[in-house]
Amino acid sequence: MKAFRKNIAAAREQAVGRISGGLRKAFGHAQRKWADWMHRKMNGRSKRTLLVSLSLFVAFSTLYNGWILIGSPTQREIRFGNIHVPQKAGQSKIIHDAYSMELQRIRTFRKYMDSLYSSETGRPTYDSIMEARPGLLDSVKALEKLVGK
Known about the structure:
Blueprint: H1 2-42, H2 47-71, H3 91-118, H4 123-132, H5 136-148
Helix pairs in contact: 3-4, 3-5
């Protein structure tokens, strides 16, 4: 059994090694392609042109980041728009129907319990239910109020 576990662990390590090796190879290939493309684009440029391009890039990047950092204290608060959850087509009708069906079932149960309480033959059944589940009618009333909203 121990040898079987070692074989599984070794197979898992080999699989992870193959995956990471493949990813490493793919990233190396992409990096090489990018370097070749950049070399082809910049090959014919003079040193002065490259230096001016780099200087402009650094200057614009610095100015933009400075503008973001300095401009942020002028905003006193972060504003968020209202978030609206989109209604799916017909969903509200389905939910309304489900709630009305549940409400009807709750009311039917309350009527049944009331009829048990009011009849001579149902009174022992009502008493046994109330003895077994003392807070049942309170829960039914709370549920009816909750579902009825």
